[in-house]
Amino acid sequence: MNLAVKDIRYHFFKFLTSTIGVGLLLMVMLTIGGIIRGIILDSSTITETTGADLWVVQKAWLGPFVEISRFPEDYYHAIQSMHGVAEASPLVMAWDHVERAMRPTQLMKFMYMNTLIGTRTMVEPGWIDMPHDSRFIVIGYEPGHIGGPPTIIAGRGIEASHYEIVADVKTGLQVGERIRLGDFDYTVVGLTRNMVGYTADPVIYASLDDAQNILFEADPDLLRNIRRRTQQQVLGAAALDPRIGGPLAQQASQIAENVSLVNAIAVKVAPGVPVDEVAQEITRWKHLEVYTAAREVNMQLMGSNRLILLQLSLFRLILLVIAGVVIGLITYTFTLDKLKEIAVLKLLGTQTRRIYAMILQQAVLMGLLGTLLGAALEFASEPYFPRRVVATRGDVVQMLIVISVIAFLASIMAIRRATKVDPRSVLGT
Amino acid sequence: MEYAIEATDLAKSYGEGHTRVEALKGISMAVRPGELFAIMGASGSGKTTLLMILGLVTEPTEGRVLLEGENIYNGKRFDLQRLRREKVGFIFQFANLIPFLTAKENVLLSLELIGIFGRQADSRAMELLEYLEVADRAGNLPEQLSGGERQRVAIARALANNPAIILADEPTAALDTERGLSVMRLLRKVSKDQGTAILVVTHDTRMISEVDGVIRLMDGRMVEHGDSKRQPQSQNGR
């Protein structure tokens, strides 16, 4: 006969409400773990899905994600021909935005309101209105090469050489929808899921040429200005023969307008070739910076992202301590409620370990059931979070183990109290 | 083995020096199997202390206790907890059944404690509940039973381990006269049928009619033993 189970059956409502309380607390802990994983996934998704072993960027820049990196597109031909390189793919990637009215859900509105509690004076009065700008990351790649959308969940990939894009569902775009980017209209031909950057901004894929136009094409008035100034500078720099100076000035202005730039070259190393060897080769001969895929992910987890992760970890640790204290106090209260029964059990000769096991089993059972409840609630609530939250079964198993240990430690106080119960106390009363 | 329990020159004191309190002094008594004795006395006379010593809960400062001929407090480290669950049954004033166990489970618990499980335990529990005429309440929790029914279940629990002695601490105090007498008659029946020695602590003189003898205490001393012939010879020559 399991005394813990019998006692729980008798005090079912009390146990249930306590377990729900613990479960909600553990749900928050699992959610924080899910947010941490979400941030890391957001920071690694593009790098991971590209499948590149190395990222080549402008010398001395931490590009292409956390700092600007620009260099001529044709570098990639040289890299492609290097020993040990299986594939080199020029990539353009940068943040862009469009003016686009969003349709906020009631939950989002509520979250905005909630955010304003105590911070209203710190933001513009109109901040409550949802922003009308949608921000996203444009990634330009050469179709057929690495760097494109890994999986299309609706529609198709980019087939035409121009004016087609594949967007992540988080942009809110639909297949067939047209959107103006830069100076041209683009048609959404396919959708991806979970393709976001480390800032959680969704990705829009375009062909390399289109992305260069979207991201690097200057305003026409500015271009005219640049062209005129460049030609004047070239012509004024030296008293050239007009037959030479004219074409030279024109060529100089074309160079100034050149948008054939890339932000990075993704490199896949040939099987059997050490990645470090290829990286050193590129660094030495091409005067570029080369990072491994893992280093790229680390860079995206620098700065504010890292501080957010540390902040969340600390918060999770505090919650773990709180969970331990809560379970401990509940178990202690449960024990206080049955001191007389414990005295009777002791007087009847019940083995001490059986009494302690009853207390311990209740604490552990509450922790385990609370974890399962918390996990169920966490999984159910994940889609409603504005940013990716990814808790896994592994997290739940880990939590089950941790909470068992915590419950064990938390029940020590109650067990110590039970130890002090004198069986004589039931005699003469 | 003539006596189920036999105590000689029992003394129990608490504290040291000026604060020393002598709760029991020179108590010698004996009860045979199948006998029902009452322990009586005013508050503070030492009834509960004597019960605790006989129930293997508190060690005496001096003296000897033989339980079924076995010297319990002889300086050796006896496992009193084990002896208690195997040889002693307890009945309390308010029954003190475990509230989260049904009547039957309360009896089963005592059987489990002595290593009887499964069908054997089940049939023994039901047998006891039937014997005490509460079998129809086997599945009820203590809170669903009347005071009298609770005491019957408590008696069944006390009998479960087939003890050498049952110690009842004011089992009728919470009951009216009629129900109290009914419980005493039941204890009388149990002691005869099961051959168990029963010691009942009581204030209620109306209950004396059902007992074989009375052990009366005053200020920690025994002033009356139901049958002086049975009183074991004091080692101090008293």
Q: Which whole number gives the mean pLDDT of chain B?
A: 84
Main sheet overview of chain B: 6 strands, mixed
Q: Given the helix and strand composition of chain A, which structural class is it?
A: alpha+beta
- Count of alpha/pi helices of chain B: 6
When the domains of chain A are counted, the total is 2
| Known CATH architecture of chain B | 3-Layer(aba) Sandwich
Report the strand count of chain A: 12
Uncertain segments of chain A of ≥5 residues (pLDDT<50)?
none
| CATH class bucket of chain B | Alpha Beta
Characterization of the model:
The complex is a heterodimer of chains A (429) and B (238). Chain A has 13 helices and 12 strands. Chain A is α+β, with helices and mostly antiparallel strands. Chain A has 2 domains: 3-40 and 304-426, no CATH class; 59-217 and 259-287, no CATH class. In chain A, strands 1, 3, 4, 5, 6, 7, 8, 9, 11 and 12 form a 10-stranded mixed sheet that branches. A two-stranded antiparallel sheet of chain A has the order 2-10. Chain A starts with a helix and ends in a 10-residue tail after the last helix. Chain B has 238 residues and is α/β, with parallel strands linked by helices. Chain B has helices spanning 47-54, 80-87, 103-113, 118-131, 147-160, 177-194, and strands at residues 5-14, 21-31, 36-41, 62-67, 70-71, 88-91, 165-169, 197-201, 213-218, 221-225. Chain B starts with a strand and ends in a 13-residue tail after the last strand. The A-B interface holds A 1, 3, 6-7, 9-11, 340-341, 344-352, 423-424, 426-429 and B 47-48, 51-52, 55, 57-58, 81-86, 88, 90, 92-94, 96, 98-101, 105, 108-110, 112-113, 141, 157, 169.
